[in-house]
């Protein structure tokens, strides 16, 4: 299946990113809508992978880490239920990492839900510190060089 990657910062298609995030994080996982959509969304770069039928299949966002030159935060990575186990999560991260390298970033960081830590490890991330609770769920900080 051929997926099309689109960076959608500041475009009407950014709503596609929001809709998929709400579906996965709010409807499926139970996070509060107020937590999922935040002020960072206004300035973050959003990547959407579109399925051949034009529906959003995977999304993620990234932005410069405050106070950490050369480091970008990656987050809100999610894949639609009907497209899981297809390699889209790894492809999404590959596309994000390429954009970050082009922007001069040296490090990517994220807060991974503990249950998906092995996925991020396969994508080159290493855990930093101990698990902590964020928005009611166990998370762990992870980083990878770019």
From TrEMBL:
<dbReference type="Pfam" id="PF13673">
    <property type="entry name" value="Acetyltransf_10"/>
</dbReference>
<dbReference type="GO" id="GO:0004343">
    <property type="term" value="F:glucosamine 6-phosphate N-acetyltransferase activity"/>
</dbReference>
<protein>
    <submittedName>
        <fullName>GNAT family N-acetyltransferase</fullName>
    </submittedName>
</protein>
<dbReference type="InterPro" id="IPR016181">
    <property type="entry name" value="Acyl_CoA_acyltransferase"/>
</dbReference>
<dbReference type="InterPro" id="IPR039143">
    <property type="entry name" value="GNPNAT1-like"/>
</dbReference>
<feature type="domain" description="N-acetyltransferase">
    <location>
        <begin position="5"/>
        <end position="146"/>
    </location>
</feature>
<dbReference type="InterPro" id="IPR000182">
    <property type="entry name" value="GNAT_dom"/>
</dbReference>
């Amino acid at each position: 299946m051929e997926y099309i990657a689109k960076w959608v910062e500041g475009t009407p298609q950014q709503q596609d990113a929001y809709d998929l995030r709400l579906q996965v994080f709010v409807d499926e996982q139970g996070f509060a809508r107020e937590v999922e959509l935040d002020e960072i969304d206004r300035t973050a770069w959003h990547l959407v992978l579109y399925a051949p039928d034009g529906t959003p299949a995977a999304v993620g966002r990234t932005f410069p880490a405050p106070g950490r030159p050369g480091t970008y935060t990656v987050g809100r990575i999610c894949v639609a239920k009907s497209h899981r186990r297809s390699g889209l999560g790894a492809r999404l991260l590959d596309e994000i990492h390429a954009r970050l390298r082009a922007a001069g970033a040296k490090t990517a960081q994220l807060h991974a839900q503990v249950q998906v830590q092995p996925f991020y490890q396969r994508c080159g991330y290493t855990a930093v510190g101990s698990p902590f609770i964020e928005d009611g769920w166990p998370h762990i900080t992870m980083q990878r060089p770019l």
